[in-house]
Amino acid sequence: MAKLETDSKLVQDYAFGFTTEIEDDQIPMGLNEDIIRMISDKKNEPDWMRAFRLKAFRHWLTMTEPKWAFLDYPEIDFQDICYYSAPRKPGEGDDVDPELARTFERLGIPMNERDRLSGVAVDVVFDSVSVGTTHQELLEEKGIIFCSFSEAIQEHPDLVQQYMGMVVPYKDNYYAALNAAVFTDGSFCFIPKGVKCPVELSTYFRINAENTGQFERTLVICEEDAYCSYIEGCTAPARDTNQLHAAVVELVTLDRAEIKYSTVQNWFAGDEEGKGGIYNFVTKRGLCRGAHSKISWTQVEVGSAITWKYPSCILEGDHSTGEFYSVAFTNNRMQADTGTKMIHVGKNTSSTIISKGISAGKSDNSYRGLVQILPSADHAKNYSACDSMLVGPDCSANTFPYIESENDTAVVAHEATTSSISEDQLFYLRSRGISEEDAASLVVKGFCKEVFKKLPMEFSVEAVKLLELKLEGSIG
Amino acid sequence: MSSTVMTPPQFLAGFDEAAFDACASGEASFICTRREKAFNDYGMIPNPTSRDEEYRRTDPMLFRMGRYARMPTIATGRLQKTRRWDEAFDVVVSITDHRLGLSEDLPAGVTVCSLNDAATSHPELMEGYFMGAASPEEGRKFLELNNAFWNAGLFIHVARGVVLEKGILIHYDVEAEHAALLPRLLVIGEEQSQFSIIEDYQSSHETPFLCCSAREFYAHAGAQVKLVTLQEWGPSVVHIAEDWARVDRDAMVDLVSLSLGGKTSKMTVGCTVCEPQANAYLGGLYFANDKQHFDQKTLQLHAAPDTFSKMLYKGAAKDKGYSVYQGIIQATHGSIGVDAYQTNNNLILDKGARADSLPGLIINADELACSHGATMGNLDPEQLHYLRTRGIDEVEARKILVLGFFEEVVQRVPHAPIQERLHDMIERKLGDTDE
Fold this sequence. Notes:
- The model of chain A is unreliable at 1-12 and 113-118 (pLDDT under 50).
- Chain A has helices spanning 8-13, 33-42, 47-61, 98-107, 136-142, 149-155, 157-163, 174-182, 423-431, 436-452, 457-471, and strands at 24-26, 85-87, 120-126, 129-133, 145-148, 187-191, 200-206, 217-222, 227-235, 242-245, 248-253, 258-265, 277-288, 294-301, 306-309, 312-315, 321-330, 335-344, 350-360, 364-373, 381-391, 396-405, 411-420.
- In chain A, 24% of the residues lie in helices and 35% in strands.
- Chain B has 2 domains: 17-380, no CATH class; 381-435, no CATH class.
- Chain B contains 8 helices and 22 strands.
């Protein structure tokens, strides 16, 4: 399969589009029970894990692909995907395969303890496996478990068994079932009672091999009074074929615990004609199980050919809080159908949704969000604001909120606007001698500011830069 | 193009081939042709189920279609008796099980007659408009059901420049149990005409029946057309409505739907603002109490630059009432300069009541402003407290606030007696509690 020419334009558009020539350990293409057993064998998994996978797979066979989203893409051939690919010798610590280390250096991700970022512990997932986790000792002192999912299955089977599938059961939806059957790695975080995690926990996902899918699973648990901030970043090489990414993320907070989950998703989005790019079908959900607990999702979605993603909160504990802050940018032929679900179960629960969509080129950008107030959720509160900005005449911006209230003491307010980039604001800036491109970029940044300020600092700077880069050429 | 396998036609219970054959009765040939085409289309559309997004909240099983039998197409005659508000209007029409009654002496330039009469007297208008371009959405089962089976057809045409001061009043009343009334209305407002139409749905208390109505409205350049539907059916009635309007250059259409009665209602109102400066207003008032179920869908379709639309739906749910609002503003490619707004406010007054709101925007053009807002909640405790401190008791204070909540829609109704009726109805619904 021909790779895209990495001419200067492409490199400028997508700086992470290179591939790494590394020896892969791949299993045959296709999807059946033998493949699942093979994955399970590769990872030397206990019987309960294998049984879980097979149960999920058998259920997946009975399901059909969801078609309700505002997305248009050719049928996915699930037999034409390799479900496991790993670098043959990832190595550990200073023995990291130099080719792999170079890759992550180019991506700006520190894999090596020597040049790690001061305040961030990183887990790196390359294709199907985790290739290194930093800061282990510091975290161990506090009793925090931060490791790859495979390691957690081996080392902390009780915790995995207790929590895996609690928030996103394998039956939940088509892609969640597929993920439960074939997931290969991911991150596992456990913050014990009363511990405030001193560093940002971060996972970096990289798809490298061709014709593979990435199916990772992340589980973050904060026990009573615990806190952690978790950051996730993703990139993939520029290829002219589509690749599938179907992840599951589960968050659980007990009494008074808080999880802040931030994502910058910059999977390869395909070229200008819409060739290639990642199909990103992700199920992310948090369960505020304890009273006064809080889960906050912040996402900056600038990549992927297709995005299907609804980070959600189930507000079960009384007085629990859910937040969703999102910037979704689409350009060229990208399609995004993304939003959130806030399900209010407990009393006095509150949620906030701030969503900013920017569509440019010939892209489709849809917000889809559910606010559900169950009869038990006395005095629940929700506020949602969804703004869409259109850059150019050929894109589309859609908003599909679903509000269901079954409680007479709840208060829900939703507002949404769709407009093009403001001519008045542009004119004002132009009259101050600012070039059209810079003016547009300023207006867009201002539009997204409410979300960016929710990101951890270094990440926020990155996100602004990324958006600037993506905007180049789409305005004026 | 399509690779769909031919499937056998699907019919809703009681509306199959036998029922269709029975309703043929010497109508004009083009009416027969259109009925037949509609019947074929109707059969081709799969029966809606609660798995379809549009019917997820209103299971078509609730309609219990099998219980109703289509009444024969009703004949035209004179008005038999006077009913409420008759004197306040220029033209009065009454539609009952047996008769389509018309007032005499129509004002100049106004044609009001049955569809079958119009097929003879105005064949060119009928052929040009009837079941014409007003419906922008395909595959609507109940619209095609009405297209094929309508049994009470009314034609209203207002000539160029004619201004009707008081408007047209249409009464509907059904007495037969388990009957299916399928009213069909075609309204054409020529250039610069101005008029309003009020539809008044009433039925005796316990009669269960089905009303499946379809209406087409055409407003030509500069016309100002106002349509108000007051639905006060008895408590065992199933009401389905499919309304579509086309609005031309500089014209203004006001569609106000006031839903108070019936057991289960599923209403769809759509308008296409299809030429520059066309303007549409969709107003809605609904109050679900007891076990009432209201489901309403709106579509504001902007198919040209510089078109405007505004939608305001206000609802309350009480006891075990359940209301659903779903709506879309759609701007097609190239429709720059569109200004569109959707507001849906809901009061949930009791534990056990439920309201769903699904406003939506589908925007394929830039340089426009489209927005929506939706709210849900009970009465504001601060406002209640304010009124209580002025010596107003709780019941009265709640009444004042609920009336105030609905007033913006009530004010869109151009006739004072109908506004008063709305106030009475809202008060009555509020009072119907065991508390």
